[in-house]
């Protein structure tokens, strides 16, 4: 059976940091499912289908990567897909405690799947979707942080001209 990994997240929106992790996961596993997870506790800026469409546009050149969305327990999805791994990116020590808690809990719930942490590339250590949205909302340049197609959507939704210019 082919090795399947799930790469879950909110992806609101997908960043260059997420893409780096997805690309690297796609060279480790035969099939990678990027999963937009619906979290009722968060108020996202983009709908699930918008987030999934942005991701699809960014992973076109990766033939073993699929995009899906889901609401529920991650382990239930991973089990249904026969996934052997859950792939997460780790940026800094600040990510670690929360990610470790989730990894241990998921392992307890689904012992047959491993959580695989990939250390983020140094250029993406500081990067997060919320920072990207904050920068865009003040008219800042986000082109270095997200792919062009995502930058256009974020600026269209949240952007304003720099220094309040019209
Ligand atoms: O990008 P995020 O918001 O940090 O991703 C968090 C996510 C979606 C991976 C996490 O909240 C999750 O796995 N949610 C699904 C619900 C679930 O399985 N919860 C128990 C985790 S131990």
Describe the structure.
- The protein has 166 residues and is α/β, with parallel strands linked by helices.
- The chain is 42% helix and 19% strand.
- It contains six helices and five strands, in the order βαβαβαβαβαα.
- The chain has helices at 16-28, 48-58, 74-81, 93-109, 129-137, 148-158; strands at residues 4-9, 31-37, 65-70, 85-90, 114-119.
- It has a five-stranded parallel beta sheet with strand order 3-2-1-4-5, sandwiched between helices.
- The longest helix has 17 residues, at 93-109.
- The radius of gyration is 16 Å and the shape is globular.
- The mean pLDDT is 94.
- The structure holds 4'-phosphopantetheine.
- Residues 8-10, 37, 39, 73-74, 102, 105-106 line the site of 4'-phosphopantetheine.
């Amino acid at each position: 059976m082919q090795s399947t990994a799930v790469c879950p997240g909110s992806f609101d929106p997908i960043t260059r940091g997420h893409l780096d992790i997805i690309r690297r996961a796609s060279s480790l596993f035969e099939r990678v499912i990027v999963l937009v997870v619906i979290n009722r506790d968060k108020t996202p800026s983009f709908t699930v289908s918008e987030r999934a469409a942005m991701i699809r546009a960014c992973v076109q050149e990766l033939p073993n990567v699929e995009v899906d969305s889901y609401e529920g327990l991650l382990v239930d999805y991973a089990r249904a897909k026969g996934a052997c791994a859950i792939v997460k990116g780790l940026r800094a020590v600040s990510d670690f405690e929360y990610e470790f808690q989730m990894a241990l809990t998921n392992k307890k719930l689904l012992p047959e799947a491993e959580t695989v942490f990939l250390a983020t590339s140094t250029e993406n250590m500081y990067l997060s979707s919320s920072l990207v949205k904050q920068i865009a909302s003040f008219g800042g340049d986000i082109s270095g942080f997200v792919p062009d197609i995502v930058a256009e959507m974020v600026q269209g939704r949240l952007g304003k001209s720099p220094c309040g210019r019209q």
